[in-house]
Each structure stands twice: as C-alpha cells, then as structure tokens.
Write a structure and sequence with these properties.
The complex is a heterodimer of chains A (299) and B (202). Helices cover 38% and strands 21% of the residues of chain A. With 299 residues, chain A is of the alpha+beta class. Chain A has 2 domains: 122 residues, Dihydrodipicolinate Reductase, domain 2; 122 residues, 60s Ribosomal Protein L30, Chain: A, CATH 3.30.1330. In chain A, the strands form 2 sheets. Chain A has a 5-stranded mixed sheet. Chain A has a 4-stranded mixed sheet with strand order 4-7-5-6. Chain B has one domain: fumarase (Alpha-Beta Barrel). The chains are: A alpha+beta (299), B alpha/beta (202). The interface between A and B is large, with 59 and 51 residues.
Chain lengths: 299, 202
Amino acid sequence: MAHEQAKERFVESMVQVMDFTSRILPDDVFDKLKELQAAETSDMQRVIYDAYFDNLEKAKELKRPCCQDTGILHFYLSAGTEFPHLGMVEEALEEAVRRASAQIPLRQNTINYFEERNTGDDTGERVPWVHWDLLPGSQDLEIITYFAGGGCCLPGRSKMYKPSDGYQAIVDNVFDAVADLGINACPPLVVGVGLGHNIENAAVLSKKAYLRPLGTRHPHPKGARFERDLTEALNRLGIGAQGLRGENSVMAVHVESSGRHTATIAVAVSVACYAHRRSLVRFHSDLSFEVLSHKEAGH
Amino acid sequence: MKKILTTPLTNADLEDIRIGDVIYLNGHIVTCRDVAHRRLIEYGRELPVDVRGGAIFHAGPIVRKREDGKYEMVSIGPTTSMRMEKFEKDFIEQTGVKVIVGKGGMGQDTVEACQKHKAIHCVYPAGNAVLAAIQVEEIEKAEWMDLGMPETLWYCRVKEFGPLIVSIDTHGGNLFEENKVKFNQIKEEQIKKISEKVKFIK
C-alpha cells in the first residue's frame, strides 16, 4: 500500500473511532452504570440516572456527542515494534482529530499557552496528546482513545511524600480528590491512583489506572485488596450521581504502581467522569481494525 | 406534576422554591461562562444580552451553522459553576438575572447575592448534552462570537428545559454545602478505618 493511501485509510478509520467513542460508552462502563442505577432509591437519583440513560439513547439515535465537552483528545498507544506504519501515526492522528472536529463535530477546546486563542480545530501544541508504549514483536497497533474533559481533569493531583507519611498519604489524597473537587466531576467516577517515585511517573500511572477496563485488578494481592477497600470506603460517602447524594460514589478505584525510591512515596490521583468516553481498537498490519471495547460500535 | 417556570421571572415566582426541588424552564436562557463574567465585572463591558428576570447557563455548547445561516444546538451541558464564583455576586447584582444553571455548587458570596436579590442556582445533570440540546427550540442570536464556540453568548429559546435541581434558593439554602458537611463527617471515619489496613511499611 502506498504511503499516502495507507495514511488516508488510517485517518478515516480514526475519525470513525472518535465518532462512536464520542457517542457511545464502552460496554463495561455502561453495564456498571446500570448496576449502580439499580441500587439507587431516592427520587432525585432516579431522575438523574434516567436523564443519563435517556441522553445516551438520544446521542446514539441522533449521532451526536453524548457530552458537550469532548475534551482534549488523548491517544494511549501500544505499538507493535513490527507494525509497518509507525512513522505516520502521530501526524495521522493529528489530521484525524482535525477532521473529526469539523465532521462529528467536536467542541473546539484547545488553546495554546501564551497565544490564548482557541485554535478552532481541537489540535494545538502537543495536542492531541499521544502516549507511546511498545509491544515487542507484535505487528499490531492498539489505540486507547480518550476524551479528556475539563471537569474531570480538574480534581487531578500529583504529590510527593516521605516514607514516614506512609500509605496514609495515599488514602488522604484519594479521599480529598473525590470528596472535594470530585463532586463536580460528574460522579459516579472512575478513580485512577498512580503510585511511583516522582510526580511525573505517578501521574502517568494514575491515568493508565483509570483507562484500565472495569473489573480488572492490581496484580499484587495487597494492591487488589487496596482497590476494593478504597472503592467500598468511597462508596460509603454516598456522593451519588452528580454529587447530589446517593448510594454510591464511584464505579471503581484502580491502582497502578511502579517501584519507588527508598526515600520517596509519590501519589497521583486522576478521575474520570461517568461519561467515560474511552475506546480500545486494534489495527493490524494491513490497517484493518477491530473494536475491542464496544460491542455496538455503530459504524 | 412538573414545576415549570417561565422567563421573565419575578421575585414572587421564586419565593416557594427550596433546595432539592426539581424544576423546568420555559422561555429564554443564555450561555454565559468564564470570560463573559470577566468582561462584565473586571473590564466593565456591558453584557450584550439583557438577562433581567432571565436565566443564564454556565455552559459551552457544540453549535452547528446550518445552510440557512441559522445556528443549531448540537450538544450542550453545564460546566463547573464554581469557576464563576469570583464574579457571580456582582453579576447577579448588576444584571438582575434570576436563574443560574450550571454544574456542582457555588459559594457563600453567591448564596448571599441569591438571598438579597432573589435568584436561584440550579444544576442541570451534567453530561446530558443531547437531552439539553433538543430542549433548545431555537438559537435566536449569538453575541461575543470572538470568544470562540464555547464562550459565545448563545441566546436560546427553550421548552421544558430540565430537570433542574435547585442547589441555592432565595432563603440562604445551599444544597452542596449541606451535602459536603455530611460527606466530610463520613470521610474522616472511613479514612481512619482504611488507614488501619495499610500499614505496609514496617
């Protein structure tokens, strides 16, 4: 396949991916919301959950983004080292965002620092934000597409502690993020906790944590237990949908960790709103692709 | 039965409304967020839309220009109201706005202004952008378009716009503050409990 032809095919595929991702929640999130809806007892919570599902239905039917804040586009890539088109990927993703912005349409959200003017097409300095990981020996390219809305980015935090502060510091940070600004971030939330040795590695891990499929667990038994304990404890707060008090607060808490420096504890918390617009697709070397996150991808 | 308010509103219309009530709006609502507030309050520029007795929406929509030159509401939902807290008290006083719709709660200054000038703050369940968009019958005009799509003042005629959950009423009530107190009580207790289980550094 000629280079330009390959790129064009990839760009158009990614416009499709952004289109369904902006309208339809991934299966695991949709199912979890249904489960949480069933647990609610108050009239107000019922009105809100009814609005959530009514809205998702209308978004699908009218082919419009389910939330007006289509965010800044993030792509988390797991790239096979043998995937033959690696060189064009970043440029193509930028072009795909530009087209998606006009065609879907997306809300124009990107402003470059110092210029302080909306770029008008959802691209800008290092936007879309692209994160690369490698899949040794693979010929595939896996892409998590995520719409990072403003409201759910605001509670995010990354902080350093001393070992004497202990794991208590992690607990405090999670509760502060969720019970304070998290109320405005459209709960029930997916909470990502990153544990590392400096703020940057913890922040990246907190992001990877909330991108993980719901129902997955930290590989260490104590880590898995910590996730369950945090989930239960946060739900006891009873923040409810929209922070207006209900039976639950979160869809899940996920923890991702790396080794820490003997002298540091780094904690980051990122939260994702109930309209958790993330998808996972896998491109093959011939640039055909399959959708792994949505049974009903609507294309 | 649905409680429906119609703009323009008077003090009497809001008298019986309390925090936690669910209401709907007929009439007009104009989107108005960060920079519009700043222009009015900090730079003293006159708001190009009269909102006396009316409603504003802390929102940044997706709007499409149709072939006939009219604008169509594609997707609209509330943004975090607390960002406007710094300006809202003066905004209410200067404009005479009666209903402020947004997301999450607002602070003490807004509560005081709502009590003094008889206005309310409501929450539109956020993220329900298509639902809200189809409740907009028409975008009648657009002002300050130099601010870009999210910040433009989109003047909308709406029908049964809602559900709007009243978070600040004209009597000094603040639903989110009340809830926050409750969350914080439980929070301390839960943090203590879980902290006992994570003494891993020994």
